[in-house]
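On clarity, I found the account of how folds are encoded harder to follow than it need be. What matters is that the chain and its backbone geometry are given together, residue for residue. I therefore recommend that a typical entry be quoted early in the introduction. An entry of this sort, consisting of the sequence and the corresponding backbone structure tokens, reads as follows:
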Amino acid sequence: MKVTAVADKLVISVEAHSSQAENIHYQVVHWIPGRFRILIPRLHEDEEYITKLKYVLDTIEFVTEVEINAQASSLVVSYKHQPTAIAIATVQEKLFTAIQRAPEVEVPLGWTGEGEEKKADNEIDFVERLGFPIAGLVLSVGALVGLPIPGFVIAGVVFIGAVPVFKRAWEAIQQDRQLTIDFLDGLAISLHTLQGHYFAPSFMLGLVESGEVVRDMTARGSERANLDLMSCLNKTTIVIRDGQELEIETKDVVVGDHVLVYPGDQVPVDGIILTGTGILDQCKLTGESVPVTRREGDEVFASTLLVDGNLTILAERTGNNTRAGVIVNLMQAAPVHDTRVENYAATVANQFVIPTLLIAGGVGLASGNMNRAVALLTLDFGTGIRVSVPTTILSVLTYAARNGVLIRSGRAIEILATIDTVVFDKTGTLTIGHAGVNDIDIMDDRFTKDEVLCLAATAEQGLTHPIAEAIVHNARDKGLVLKECEDWEYRVGLGAAAKIDGMQIIVGSPRFMTQENVDLDEYDRCYPDAKSGGQSLVYVAGDGKLIGVIRYSDPPREESKAVIKELKEMGINAYMLSGDVTRVARSIAGNLGMNPDNIYAEAFPEKKVEVVKGLHDSGKTVAFCGDGINDSAALAYADVSISFAGATDIARETADVVLMEDDLRGLIMAVKCARQAMDIIWQNTAIVAIPNLGALLSGIFFALDPILAVVINNGTAILAELNGLRPLMGPSDVTPLGHTLSAAEIAEEENRLHQHQPVSNQVLPTYDVKVEEVFVSSELQSEVKLADSNGHSNHENSNSNGHKEDTTITLNGANGSQVKSQLTTVKAAKPSDNKTVQLKQSE
């Protein structure tokens, strides 16, 4: 059937009529078939909303993937695309409704949004490892109490259970040409069993194998060798080929491609900007604490985050050839160690194997009593140590994890106990990693500091730029009420201009002020020190005259200074490496009380590795603490590496220790726990060695019953094991990490929770959707423009921010024709201001 097209208006307005509904502001930044990118400012500050939004989107049948970048307030939804107007209308309706109703949804307990997890690399099959030893112990106990169990059955189970012991002993003889504690244990188990004494060998076997299992449990579950650059970047990238925008896998981008990058995207390649201006957060790659502006002709690097602006980039290097890829390759080339706790049983007990064999053989031959020889063979030092040491380590791992510190391996604990040097990255490690307002300089006596801050925050509100957010948050923290903008304009890389209370206010960089003919010379004369130290400046002008300057910086973490001081008291030297300029690095180090000789500024990843290796080669035991991609190589080369839960994926997975609370005090806790663990290990060595050595000497001169030897040997093992549980209580001088709220903060939190309580019985808010439809023929190719409810072209908006973005939607007709919709979106002040397009194809 042939039809005509009607394209007078294309408006969909969504209005909430539920008293509980919240108004969620959002903006469609970009759309291509199969994917929406949406800016939602609330994502930056509300983790609960993020979880609820993920849950709601996960329940929509056509959604295939959800990516949220909270830092950039960005939501990317991939969906099953169907090239029909009705299908697109359905996607939009459900997607935008989900954004609005998410705050009212109650997420089921235990929901994580993740699929079935892969089996851990160090997962242990307990039945396979301990099944026969436990069965042998049960059968031997049954025989002791009089159950009619044939002896050959018990002996067979014991020998099968002892196969791992025999294998380890044989491997040591073949590979190391050495008789180990496993040889002694295997011999004692065999002789006891052949004599018909089943309880002693089965009990010994159970202790030996359980110790080996616990030791294997201290191994790290993930291997850094599996990490690569692609795991750190977005899975897909938009490129322009033959004039068409295509979404392809990032690994398929080639040199020469024109790559499109939007706010919230990570740059996927190293290259040159062809068009556009953007604000890039490079701190995870270069260590720069403040976002930088990049324009046409400037170079950008893979893994950096585009905070604002749109870029078209000419790809010059891809994958492992990028700067970030080189860092990953450097990290993967670092030596990989056995992550299990060291086998102290082998270290201590192997030295006594041959002497014990000689003594037992001599006593047996001299006395003619085989029982005396078997008793002496039972008195080895290895059983108690190989059980108690892994138990101690596992107790430390458990205590630390319960208190917000994930220690990934037993080896990390051993190294932490001996470190004498800690090398810190600066940005995001010793500092909080984002800008904070320090002070305001007044240049016009008509205004106070709070008034200048209020004007700047009013002009900057709604922007996702980190510095703008810092100014707005500082104003809100002070309880300032922001004003209304009569007119507003934002210039990427320069700043914002707004008309407030009849005054033309501009806020931004010195370059912006120069373009607007604002004189800055007077400020330089009044505040000659402003550009020294670690601070940066934001200028505020009114009606063409400078009225104030806001000083900001990436301030130190609240706990950093105390942590540096405590490390010194523990005899540990602190160093700082930073990709930032020397002026900023030295300023931060001075505030923290660090030795100026231990500061390395403008340090690229290769330099960080060089410093870490140099310290290690000088005889120091080095821990490195960092959070960025640029830190991952140094993390891999350090003796022990520390990162944060909020770090980049590659830094977090490289690290041996992860501070889950993002609190540096966790490092102090980890070191003290490790030192306590090693003290207990040596205590346990004494608990096991002294009684067994005494019994061994007694057995040389006096007859020692084999059962008594088993009691002494296994009794000391049990005592050592109990002592190995002490780390579960933590070191006496460590206060567990926690957050203490004042009475006022508790009341505020209670009010917040009451305000956000979900509606009972999961009743969701209702939305009245008013749709004006346009019928489009699949044979017609036309341009459709967005109009407001009065039919006027929507090229202006009345919201305070005045943001506009143009997005082209292309629909493919059944016969290959296309219908394009030019969609202009604005950052709305109300949900009803969010306009989009719904198309419906006629029959």
About this structure: Residues 665-701 form the longest helix (37 residues).
